[in-house]
Structure prediction request, 434 residues.
Amino acid sequence: MNENYKNWDHQHVWHPFTQMKEYLAEDSLVIERAEGNYVIDTEGHRYLDAISSLWVNVHGHAKKEINDAIKAQLDKIAHSTLLGSANIPATELAKKLVDLVHEKLKTEKINHVFYSDNGSTAVEVALKIAFEYWQLKTPKKEYSQKQKFVSFRDAYHGDTIGAVSVGHIEMFHEIYRPLLFPTIQAPSPKDPECLDWVKNRFKKDAQKIAAVVIEPLVQGAGGMIVQPDGFLKKLKSLCEQYEVLFIADEVATGFGRTGTMFACEQEGVVPDLMCLAKGLTGGYLPLAATLATSEIYEAFLGNYSEYKTFFHGHSYTGNQLGCAAALANLDIFEKEKVLESLPSKIQTLTESLQRLKSLSSVIEIRQKGLMVGIEIGPYPLESRVAHKLCLAARKKHILIRPLGNTIVLMPPLSITEDEINLLCAVVYDLISAL
Prediction:
């Protein structure tokens, strides 16, 4: 039966971010079930999930509390529309998210939650809200000039057209350029001239700029590029000075990945709009949330005839099963003191990675919390050395993925220190054999 699944997979499934010609020449890995930090294939082999099933899993697989929450909700109702009516899990989750932001970001400015389905849509929602916000603040029958968005080289914000428009990774985005709306590309946050560049552009064009959108602290898909200390806080200060909205894309960095619940809290930054997804449900179900300040929300209030409504939505907005999973996920953070357990794990990871720095093939190791990028080279991208290394890791029963010539490690927060040491030892052996 296992061969049937492999054959059907090759015959019918078009995989994301995958060159199918090469994939079809490889042996498929077909996952059947999972336990804790491991996924298990149809042949019973266990693999350490060192990429959190693409950066989403938080507390491990088959977590009883989340399983039970979904089962209990399923016995009540699986889904009803949020257009014009409420539901209990979505309402409870909105309150819990707002309270969490108030606690972690030390603010009471953010009070409103708009649900969608994934990280791309969370960003898409934020872009449309920011654009419409400035239009609503402009006298009727006129369009505000504040229509442009500033984002950064190496940025990745998702795969929908708006999210791709503010993305700047040539390999992923360049082919779609004719479809996209024009945006302002700032230098990478790692470049020393970035903040001065932004300030000079604001001086010149702030009246045309609606918002800045950024992945706080770490640019994930760009290769785990870590921003300099203080960068985020200084960028937010410039936005306040020149009246530009600040959109924090916490899709990858949120829910403990950088060592705190949200990356923004490490620099005391309060965004105007904050995008959440991936770890929101603990990695169980598609759910996203775009959080907004009261000032932004109130700009959309008015009589229907004024057409201030935010005309945007998704069929599964505020889905009860997803929200039930998210509530259980947040409860686990509290009950198991997950954030308090992270410093020792992060320290173990940092120490375990040190040995890799001695390898001639390792160009740079970038780490923030449990987010790691190991850049190897120099190898031409077409040689796919990093991809082959990840296939070799699979034979060692560890799942990792490459981004170009960068090996990404992003394990669930539930990973143990022994598993961290095992992971780094395997990666060391594989890179040293190159």
Notes: The longest helix spans residues 88-105.
